[in-house]
């Protein structure tokens, strides 16, 4: 059952996202939407995904208006996606000895990045990591499992007070 919280956006498997009557286009995982998410499957997890906080590149734009905590990222910020490492699915400082993503990217995808509450309370090894809300690639190319929107749409969604997402299963 989808959330009735007015600040929770519904995400449909066809790439539509709605919040209080407004609809935006979004990109989802290249592996589709799955109820049983696993590390590396490229799927967006079905179910509730609270928006924990929003990170942004201060050198590339103003902080987005949000209903959740907002903080800048630095060149040494990363996210561990190595399921064998104790820091799996957590923010880390670089350099780091395990497989990871850099949050300070050369492209613009993580200029604004929302940390979504997937597999974080508690972390289960192999269940998936680094599920974010971020900027879409041109043409809304599929993600590695994240939810991605065009920059103006992402800022509008955050400014509208979104605090979570409910990804509907196909």
Structure description:
GO terms for molecular function: transferase activity. The chain has 170 residues and is mainly β. The protein has a single domain (8-167), classed as Beta Barrel (L,D-transpeptidase catalytic domain-like). 5% of the residues lie in helices and 33% in strands. It has one helix and 14 strands. The protein has one helix at 151-159; strands at 8-12, 16-19, 22-25, 33-34, 44-45, 47-56, 70-72, 77-80, 91-93, 100-102, 112-116, 132-135, 147-149, 164-167. Strands 1, 2, 3, 6, 7, 11, 12, 13 and 14 form a nine-stranded mixed beta sheet that branches. The protein has a three-stranded antiparallel beta sheet with strand order 9-8-10, with no helix packed on it. It is globular and about 45 Å long. The two termini are 13 Å apart.
Features:
three-stranded antiparallel sheet, nine-stranded mixed sheet, globular, 1 helix, mainly beta, cell wall biogenesis/degradation, L,D-transpeptidase catalytic domain-like, 170 residues, cell shape
The number of helices is: 1
N-to-C span? 13 Å
For this structure, what is the CATH class?
Answer: Mainly Beta
Q: What is the assigned CATH homologous superfamily?
A: L,D-transpeptidase catalytic domain-like
User: What is the element string, with H for helices and E for strands?
Assistant: EEEEEEEEEEEEEHE
Quick check: average pLDDT? 97
Rg from Cα:
15 Å
Total number of strands:
14
Q: Briefly note the structural class of the backbone.
A: mainly beta
In which range does the helix fraction lie?
under 10%
Task: Label the overall shape.
Answer: globular
Number of domains: 1
Strand residue percentage: 25-35%
Uncertain residue ranges: none
| Biggest β-sheet strands, sense, barrel | 9 strands, mixed
